[in-house]
Amino acid sequence: MSLVQRLDAHSSLKALGGFAFGAVLLFAVAPAMLSDFRLGLLAKFLCFAIVAVGIGLAWGRGGMLTLGQGVFFGIGAYIMGMHLQMADAAKRHEDVPEFMTISGINELPSYWQPFASAPVAIIGILVLPAAMAAVLGFGVFKRRVKGAYFAILSQALAAALAILLIGQQSIGGFTGLSDFKSFFGFRLSDPVNRRMLFFIAAATLLIVMAIARQLMHSRYGELLVAVRDQEERVRFLGYDPANIKIVAYVVAAFFAGIAGALFTPIVGIISPADIGVVPSIAFLIGVAIGGRTTLLGPALGAIGVAWAQTSFSEEFPSGWTYLQGALFIVVVGFLPAGLAGFGPLAKQLLERVRPAKSANQALPVTPASEAIVASVLSTGAPADEDKVEAR
Q1: Whether this model's pTM surpasses 0.90
Q2: Distance of CA 207 to the CA centre of its chain
Q3: How far is CA 91 from the centre of its chain?
Q4: In this structure, how many other beta carbons lie within 10 angstroms of the beta carbon of residue 188?
Q5: How far apart (Å, rounded) are the C-alpha atoms in residues 307 and 44?
Q6: What is the sign, positive or negative, of the torsion defined by CA atoms of 299, 300, 301, 307?
Q7: Neighbour-count burial of 372, counting CB atoms closer than 10 A to its CB (0-12 exposed, 13-18 middle, 19+ buried)
Q8: How confident is the model over 252-273, as pLDDT tens digits?
């Protein structure tokens, strides 16, 4: 077995051990240690972590500052919400959801009807966010739009979608969709089914991280990093950087759509406030704080930021936003690698300190140096090395 094969095998075993440890934490420790309420909050945070893994792939590895992931998150969330609303209406033997009746809408809109079917809704969740990202990515990356221009464009898309949804009363308007009773036939009021949603979110996160790791350590992952660092050189070698970027952008949108679909039944509501500019930036902050170039950093950063927001905002409702902004500035300015960079940074500091100590300990003691020390101790001034040698 060659050295490269040994390193690959060691890396695979290490990753397998990490996934096993994560599975034990999520499937055994968390349900045993947390109450049903806290477990529901953790399930919500896991949805954010799924989005963060995709952002880590597109931004951390591909250099694409995606400020509009709320768009794809919202598409998946609203498709799931529409299906759940129609499923609840069918159980009540009603033609339209309850909120439409209150708003005076007595006929189901045409774009609602396909998602009454569970298989069609699932296909829409998996396909529509990715398809929209592919179309947008093709139009943007083929024209070599990148950097701040791409970030502003993606953020404007998130703002436009939120404004569009606010004006659509047939999809809930400003308040969105809420009050879901069941999830594919399971009652959401049952604590056992709520735990089932947590396990689904946990399993999805592990699967998404496994897919992202496979992409990062593949030939495609190497090309993605090369495009981020030297795009023109990659083009000179015969590859199209636009196609490489589109794939990463589509995968990130695919992850975000799945996260949105899980978010809807877990939280019980989806509104334009959950998919606009502010949530998209919050996704990005979590990734930056955790460490955008790593696999685990974005997920842990998203969970940590969401937990901190929930905890601190209860005591400091008006101060959390400033704390979040200050934390983002500190990380970007002084820790570009995020919290995941603490380990390598500490290792570098130790490596710098150890050679200095060993060099000081290895200084040879000669008669001349002994005479210099004796002269300093007796007269308070260093002796002339030439005179010492003459003695």
Answers
A1: no
A2: 14
A3: 37
A4: 17
A5: 10
A6: positive
A7: middle
A8: 999 999 999 999 999 999 999 8
